[in-house]
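User: quick one, fold this
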Amino acid sequence: MNEHIYVGLDIGTTKICAVVASVSSSNEINILGIGKSKSEGLTRGVITHIERTVESIKNAVHDAEAQCGVKTQSVVAGIAGDHIQSFQSRGVVAISGEEITQADVNRLIEDTKRIALPADRKILHVIPQEFIVDGQDGVYEPVGMSGVRMEATVHIITGLVSATQNIIRCVQRAGVAVSDIVLEPFASSDAVLDGEEKEVGVVLIDIGGGTTDLAVFADRTIRHTAVIGIAGSKVTDDIRRGLGVLTAQAEELKIKHGHAFMPSIAGNEPITIPGIGGREPMTIDQQMLCQIIQPRMEEILEIAALEIKRSGYQKHLSAGVVLTGGGSLIKGTADLAREVLGMPVKIGIPRGFRGGFVREIENPIYATGVGLVLHAIRSRARGAASNVAEEKISGKKDSIVNRMKRWFDEL
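Assistant:
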């Protein structure tokens, strides 16, 4: 595999999406291919049917390969589901040398992982919040500083071991290796948020098919994450039950005619639904459809509001809310979010690409897939940088790939 080719695999409840990208010598990112297939083996972000999921992954990867003409060897896969939990942890280490090195920071991060976890849970990410050097807090980049004692506050994200293993198993059975597993809201944030938003405080709400993922940022760091088990599929389900139509018809009604906010409906146009089994067609209007959609979307946003409150950063979110994911495409969702959350709201779209399928990728449904590719690119850059630094210090190297291999061996 060409070392400059990266593949992100978004394993969602309603769709599986593979995004293939390359990085040019001038560090410009080009989208080479996008593969998408219907997902039928997941429930609320968790794999419940291995065979169907394997088939969907194969289809998505095959479509992406057909577009870019490159054989996929390994992917960075996304993980979501309401089994995801996050909490804060602290660690402390003594500094032996003249100044703090990357090896000291790595030791400290390892120390924060020494927590009692149930046997069925695994640490997915450890995100440093801040470092404290000799009692001096507010340090974000301690490497190179002098000190004898260093502490850190970190945000730890955990998930079920079985959910992680099932993702790896499905991807491998589809004929592809997994190089990393990344929390989906973490990935989406890379695709649709910029550094300024993360600095002044912003909350990302990714309304997918099976789960609504949430991430709160302040001072350029992720402060809180949550995965809510209610999303777009529930809205489709409500339409199906409320109107007595097929799931495919309900999905089409939601996408073509759905509104999430009653005041945003301009002309109340009638909608004709074909009858089932030779019955007469049924006519409804947009307001009637909105009466079914709006309560469910309100519920999703109200739970998101509770999570924002739980984060403790409610008063520090000057950039407001960025909505992304397929659910954000329902008309009036941004207006409803402004009403429910009482903050500025915008729709987040992946941008900043130079070549390839630039227009196609500028859609909220690809936020996670694009974010996974960006994560792969940054991991490789970080891995290369830390290898150079560590070789200078100790002549040893422990790249991200090696750490991931050990991580998978532990599974």
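User: anything notable?
Assistant: The chain has a mean pLDDT of 88.
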